[in-house]
Amino acid sequence: MVDKLTYAGNLESLAVVAESERYAFEQVDICDRAELDRVFAQYQPDVVMHLAAESHVDRSIDGPAAFIETNVVGTYTMLEAARHYWQPLAAEKKLAFRFHHISTDEVYGDLHGTDDLFTETTPYAPSSPYSASKASSDHLVRAWLRTYGLPTLVTNCSNNYGPYHFPEKLIPLVILNAVAGKPLPVYGNGAQVRDWLYVEDHARALYQVVTEGVVGETYNIGGHNERKNIEVVQTICDLLEELAPNKPQGVANYRDLIIYVKDRPGHDMRYAIDAG
User: Fold this and answer.
1) Residue 206 domain-assigned?
2) What is the dihedral sign for C-alpha 159, 195, 229, 131?
3) Which residues cross the membrane (predicted)?
4) Structural domains of the chain, count
5) Cα–Cα distance, 109 to 235 (Å, whole number)
6) Which structural domain range is residue 144 located in?
């Protein structure tokens, strides 16, 4: 595993696999070509699964430069390191090699209807600096296949949730704020819809794609689990009423902590993936 260990990185998340003989960790910036070349030469991978990214939309609005650097320049650097490693491989190993790029459904923009769904042929229409940077990286990956023959695959997933989720994201943020008696901010009227995908389901899908997927194809991975943001927040509050009944001082009901704040610029209204 290669990771820069930025503010959201935490090696304790990998404690359960840290003793495995199949696990190794390198603290490396994916924009550092020399270090990537060293890692490829040392470990000689059969597959690269490229998940490294800056991913928080709010941060991309306040500071887009880091997103361009990591998501665009970093992906380019990964592709070049992978290509120069892959090209001289023995024929059998070269044929089996895969570069799997993990992306987001946010590259498609938003859906304005209630029944339409993203498919693998939906045109790109990114709305935020984050989604634009991921769209750019997707195009680079496909170009390296077409131009250089590097065997790539792309997956676009819906919103993940699950253990070890960094607390800037909606679900862990709401939980931690609620049990601390802090406000639960909801953008606009909270009617934005997201398709929620449990992280272990996503991991299983990624493994299936990298082992069975067709080179050059794009695969959308969704949860068929659409919820309005306000519904997610209210559901968490209701669950905490059962699971954490001893509320912070001054809090009668967790729902009372919900506040509505000004919507963020370019906020997409609805995401939903046709994962059939």
Assistant:
1) yes
2) positive
3) none
4) 1
5) 26
6) 2-163+197-225
